[in-house]
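Q:
Got a chain?
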Amino acid sequence: MINHAVARMFYKNQSPIGRRVRPSAPASLNVPWFTIVGVLRDVKQGGVDKQAGTELYFNFEQLTRITIGYGIGTMNIVMRSTLPAGAMSGTIRAAVAELDRSLPIVKLRSVDDVFAESIGRPRLLAQLLGIFAGLAILLAAIGSYGVLAYMVADRRREIGIRMPLGADRSVLRMVLSQGLGLTLIGVAGGLAVAFAMNRVLASLLSGVRPSDPATIGGVIALMATVAAIASYLPARSATRVDPMIVLREE
């Protein structure tokens, strides 16, 4: 049997069933040709962050019977059971010992343990990336709030002059539009840099696209909310101040 990687590479849109393959081996071993009888899903033997390679699967008894010197040094056996691995340990070791006492059992682990080990490094990188991303969003939110709040406070005298003229709502609308406009420019620049870094981010992610719409939408919504609050609260506070007090301070 072959995996999907072999089928895609050598047979593309054709059916590989019935075709013949010969595994690579020294000519002295005289390895025969094998007929493909099935296609299996790809298994990422090199890790979840690596592309699946081309693989051939053989019947163990058939392979050792018809080939000489083309043996298998190690073998992984998968068992399905409702019992935990610890409870099966003694039974498995006894069964192997009955076949051949010289056969060593190197590791006896559950599939969950194997999977956790295989994704250990990508998970650590993803957690670190998530922490730094969270800190970056927090700093961006605090910085945006500070800049917009200062911008509104700096125009306090202008707001105080407009207020006696009945410009309550127009002042709020003006401040909010300016704050959200600056935020939109910043978000657009940030998205451009993020898309430019897609290739770097892709190497650190597994099962998530660097341009994930939900993530990008959430960040845009967060920054827009922070900008709206940073613009609205100081402006609202300035509109409630007595214009005479503001003018005397100047």
The first helix runs from residue 4 to 11. The first strand starts at residue 2 and ends at 3. Residues 73 and 111 are 22 Å apart (CA to CA). The chain has a mean pLDDT of 78.
